Amino acid sequence: MRRLPLILAAAALLATGSARAEQAANPNAEEAKALIKEFATTLQGELQTAMKAGGPTNAIDVCKDRAPAIAADLAGRSGWEVGRTSLKVRNQGLNLPDDWETRVLKAFEARKAAGEPLDTMAFGEVVELEGGKRFRFMKAIPTGEVCLACHGSEITPEVTATLDEQYPGDQARGYALGDIRGAFSLSKPL
Prior knowledge:
By secondary structure, the chain is of the alpha+beta class. Helices cover 54% and strands 18% of the residues. A four-stranded antiparallel beta sheet has the order 1-4-3-2, sandwiched between helices. Strand 2 (122-129) and strand 3 (132-142) form a beta hairpin.
């Protein structure tokens, strides 16, 4: 029970830091937001095409193969590390959150519980690591209606079988509309 006050205090600090970051119009944050918009728009377009062509099972391949490729392309062109993570990951080998990401995701949950809208929920800060300073930025990914076909509570047996085959250890199910599905996570050296 001792950890709960610490978690709440950390969430409050992260939320306060987010408000300051938004007010300051940090150029790194603006660049990160632009990369996230490009990532999300590209991925969403490919997911919609796959869904129209063959339903949710086709979309699973897009998330598995194309999402990392889109992230790698953006990283190669921008110099940022680009990815997605969640407290309940689907791809255990690629999307596990590190300690910083876990703290931010938990703070996002606290901010959502306090009534903050997900569509603009983000956080960025400079962190000191062994290799030097990095700017880290995350933006929440809300669970939309289309997400529920693969991430909801009522997934078809066909989609369940494909997910079980493609993602051993999948935890990314049971979401409801408006939940925090995860976050885009970006980082670059300063």
